[in-house]
Write the structure tokens for this entry.
Amino acid sequence: MLPLYKKHTVVLILGTLLLIPRILSAQSAESIIQKMDELQSFDSLKSTGSLITKDRFGTKTVTFISWSEGSDSSLIEFTSAAEAGQKILRTSEELFLYFPDAEEVIRLQGAALRQSMMGSDISYEDMTDGKDTLDKYEVELLGEELVEGQNCYVIEMTAKSRRVPYPKQTVWVLKESFIPQKVEYFSKSGKLLKEMRVLEVMDMDDKMIISRMVLEDKLKKNSSTEMILETIEVDVSLPSNFFSLDQLSW
Amino acid sequence: MKLGSLAFRNIFRNFRRSLLSATAIAVASMSIVLLYSLLGGMEQDMKYNLQTYSTGAIRIRNLEFTKYERLNPMHLTVENPETLGQTLYKINGVSAISPRIGFPARIYKGDATFNAMGLGVNFETEGNFQDLGDAVVQTGRLPREGQNEALLGYKLAQEIGVTVGDKLTILSTTAVRGTNAITLTISGVAVFPFPALNEKTFYAPLDRVQYFLKMPNQVQEILIKTNEAASASQIAEIMRGWPGMSAELEIMDWKSIDSSYSMIEMASTVYGIMALFFFLLGSTVILNTTIMIIYERMKEIGTLGAMGMSGRQLVTLFFLESLYISIIASFLGVALGMIITVILQKTGIDLTASMEGVDIDISSVLYPQLSLKSTVLVFFYSVIVASITSLIPSRRVRRIEPVEALRSV
């Protein structure tokens, strides 16, 4: 019979051995996600593009100009005729809607954030998810898979708090470029809510920008929204109070 | 002595006994008259509310709208409502037209949000369709065409905490399947006779709602009222075949649209059955009284039998007694029911408290409607049921031997 201290040592060694692959995979998953975030992070960015929503009633196109700074601040101004002048401002804490015929700016909160943005499959809540993924999610490398013929890491992300739109996500990250190829968004119960696929990526020196992607709301029948960025400018100069309420009604 | 006058005199020989039977019959007939009046009032009220606020007598919509209604398909519209309206007025039986846009909206007031239903109407022509005058507007005035103004149901105004002159911003889905918001100034607060309108609805000028929801020269539906004599289903059929009527429009009469009125019609049958039970209940009193009469009057029956009155004549005597009581009691019961109904027709029955939060197409103050047809029916029905019931125990009289009857009591 082993003495008690030897028993403890055996348990400790076995436990450590069992945990090593998990620790390694966790580190690996974190570094993948970190790299993925870094690749898509810019000091500031200006882009123009369009949202093409297809559903049972047909196709609808909305055009926009977008500005962003860091991972939390962004401003979208819609330019298509039916939505001309409407703006969405996102700061680190809040989301505001500006409409030319409304005398007050609408601050979206709670359940209202789940509403569809311009009738698309993208909700306002989807816009609140910044690039600082590791602050918000626990990540775990599940393995590797081929997606459309390309090698991808499969990473499961579990929300650390309730302040994120989706409690769980599975991300397929390209091994070669660290760009997400596909993301599946799940409810807490594990129901698939949305699926995003990256269709095109724009190489900006040492950074990468997703310039074309499609998002499908799995709770709607035959509905998808394609987002296309037509022009992109990086490191644009923006006034210090650009992402503020004062700027919404210019 | 004739049996008829003998029976009539017998009523007063034990007046308390007769009064008991008469009261049972009178209460039953009065209750049924009141029940039918109330039901008639509910039917009338629901018909008016549906035709005025909800479906019209006939409703014209885009053919696809109803199919996708739960998805709020604001882009499925009725084009050129004015031109269409002029065409519709040419059809015999059409008395009023209301082009409308109904839309779900989220109201933003400061940091608070409220869900509501917006209704865009033409206030200049809406007077022909529904009463939006002084009786409805509690404070302020009706919104003006071309102005970003709204008329709020008083409960919605209370919930939001606003009054005349205040502003609120509303957000909704447009006909181009986008989102838009507009700020409206509250021009008036209304107390609608229809409770659901007070809790969730606001009215705004049609032209501003068309602008806000990106619906130029379009509406969501056109509601049509018809003359009293005209049949909505027949006029709807004429409209479907009317020259120039677009095949992309759905034309439906109110009974085909809303099932709540059918519920009332069904309830009417159920209440008819309930009325029968009322009478059966009343009949047990009559039955009991008649049996008591027979036992109490054994000696009398024996004497009459000994004097040569046949069993058949004795049954007729007791039947006639019951018939007289039934006629008098039914008449009094029906008359009392009519008097109470006439009073309630003027005062109304205030159901405000009991209808709190109930989503049904009935007004908060209900006015019973006296139906002469059903009242006359109740009278004859009461007389027949009460008289026939008396036959059951009085048949026993036929089998009583005079000697046996004289020996008893």
Remarks:
- Chain B touches chain A through 23 residues (CB under 8 Å).
